[in-house]
Amino acid sequence: PSKVVRKSYWVRAPRSQGGLFFPSVALGDSVKEGQQLATITDPLTDQVYEVRAKADGTIVGMALPRIVLSGYGLFHVGEITED
């Protein structure tokens, strides 16, 4: 059956929280509001930042593990409905 994304949102690297991006979910995974999606580790201070989902949805797009700057688009989360 077909699936349709009616609403979606982007999860971006928070301001002043760039570094090494390590996702903990995969493309197509369902996520719940507040669920940890990834961590970003600052290579200079070893501080680890958690990236969390803003709302329930499904991961329809995501960045590859790499170095990211603040504001970089990490995840595209969609609300999927059966059509």
What does this structure look like?
By secondary structure, this protein is mainly beta. About 0% of the residues lie in helices and about 55% in strands. The protein has strands at about 5-10, 20-25, 30, 35-40, 50, 55-60, 65-70, 75-80. The strands form 2 sheets. It has a 4-stranded antiparallel beta sheet with strand order 1-8-6-3, with no helix packed on it. A hairpin with a 6-residue loop joins strand 4 (about 35-40) and strand 5 (about 50). It is elongated. About 20% of the residues are buried.
Q: How many beta-strand elements?
A: 8
Shape: elongated
End-to-end separation in angstroms reads: 7 Å
- The portion of residues forming beta strands comes to over 45%
Question: Low-confidence parts lasting 5 or more residues at pLDDT below 50?
Answer: none
Number of helices: 0
- Helices and strands, in N-to-C order? EEEEEEEE
Largest sheet: 4 strands, antiparallel
Mean pLDDT: 93
Helix content: under 10%
Rg from alpha-carbon coordinates: 13 Å
Structural class: mainly beta
Oligomer: single chain
Give the spatial strand order of the biggest sheet: 1-8-6-3
Q: What are the main properties of this structure?
A:
83 residues; mainly beta; four-stranded antiparallel beta sheet
